[in-house]
């Protein structure tokens, strides 16, 4: 009888983790399906979708663990390239999307989207980032995921070095155990660090140092957005490549053939304790 009880107990211990693993796998598949649907949303701007081949939005968001029911913060959304995916994604799962940028100029294009399509973008919340103390902010401890795409170099060299302050504010807005996802133009580690100032490229070690100083832990990295064709040696920096093509018609075909920049994709976690 004792042997039977021991066997039953052992079976129960095995069954619990197996059930948990099945639940996690099911949740991951549901999230991936929701991300795929958002990437395929008919409301995306027609000129944005061809850039999926360089930006790999479905794979990138899955790597960062974004789920449709999450509270997601997109920092410095620019023209709203990722907002066009994140808005329908969070809407589909009852989540919340904040877009946060300098108030209000950094949010004007998203505000235009809200005016033009309230059904998709009307629930998107606007916040100031970095927050200066007077305008709406992302509440501390509220976010499951914070995302920033090709922006850290702007915080670092846009007149005033705001990088350390930016990472501290990101750390504060995340829940314990929350994720910070960073995609940034990648400078080779053996290159002169002075190139970071004007090229638009940054070293992985620089970003990791800022993140760790704020309290983050590097939890993973991916080559999803890598581009080995990018030589990173252009007089006008990363903006020489698509989509900016600052050289105009000069060597245009050459730069189009290279494609968008070589990018690192880094996942940081705010410790749970």
How does this model look, in words?
- With 273 residues, this protein is of the alpha/beta class.
- It has one domain (2-269): Vaccinia Virus protein VP39 (Rossmann fold, 3-Layer(aba) Sandwich).
- The chain is built from 11 helices and 8 strands.
- The chain has helices at 2-39, 52-55, 57-63, 83-93, 108-116, 118-121, 152-157, 163-173, 196-199, 204-214, 252-258; strands at 71-75, 96-101, 125-128, 143-149, 174-187, 202-203, 217-222, 263-269.
- Strands 1, 2, 3, 4, 5, 6, 7 and 8 form an 8-stranded mixed β-sheet that branches.
- α1 crosses α4 (83-93).
- The termini are far apart.
- The model has no long low-confidence stretch (mean pLDDT 93).
What distance separates the N and C termini?
A: 43 Å
So what's the overall shape?
globular
Which fold name corresponds to the CATH topology?
Rossmann fold
Assign the CATH superfamily: Vaccinia Virus protein VP39
Determine Rg (CA atoms, Å).
Answer: 21 Å
User: Mind telling me the CATH class?
Assistant: Alpha Beta
- Total separate domains: 1
- Portion in strands: 15-25%
How much helicity do the residues have? Answer: 40-55%
CATH architecture: 3-Layer(aba) Sandwich
Class from helix and strand fractions: alpha/beta
Which oligomeric state applies? single chain
**Overall residue-averaged pLDDT value:** 93
**Contiguous uncertain segments of 5+ residues:** none
């Amino acid at each position: 009888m004792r042997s039977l009880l021991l066997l039953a107990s052992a079976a129960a211990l095995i069954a619990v983790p197996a059930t948990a693993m099945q639940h996690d796998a099911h949740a991951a598949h549901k999230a991936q399906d929701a991300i795929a649907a958002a990437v395929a949303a008919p409301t995306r701007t027609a000129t944005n979708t061809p850039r999926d081949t360089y930006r790999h939005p479905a794979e990138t968001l899955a790597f960062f663990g974004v789920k449709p029911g999450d509270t997601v913060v997109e920092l410095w959304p620019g023209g709203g390239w990722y907002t066009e995916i994140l808005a329908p994604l969070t809407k589909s799962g009852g989540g919340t999307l904040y877009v946060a940028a300098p108030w209000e100029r950094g949010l004007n294009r998203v505000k235009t989207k809200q005016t033009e399509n309230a059904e998709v973008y009307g629930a998107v919340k606007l916040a100031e980032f970095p927050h200066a103390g007077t305008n709406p902010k992302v509440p501390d401890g509220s976010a499951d995921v914070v995302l920033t795409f090709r922006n850290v170099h702007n915080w670092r060299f846009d007149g005033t070095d705001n990088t350390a302050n930016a990472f501290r504010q990101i750390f504060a807005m995340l829940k314990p155990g929350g994720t910070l996802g960073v995609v940034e133009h990648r400078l080779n580690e053996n290159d002169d660090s002075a190139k970071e100032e004007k090229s638009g490229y940054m070293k992985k070690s620089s970003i990791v140092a800022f993140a760790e100083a704020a309290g983050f832990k590097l939890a993973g990295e991916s080559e999803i957005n890598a581009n080995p064709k990018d030589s990173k040696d252009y007089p006008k920096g990363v903006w020489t490549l698509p989509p900016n093509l600052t050289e105009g018609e000069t060597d245009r075909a050459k730069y189009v053939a290279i494609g968008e920049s070589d990018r690192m994709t880094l996942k940081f976690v705010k410790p749970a304790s």
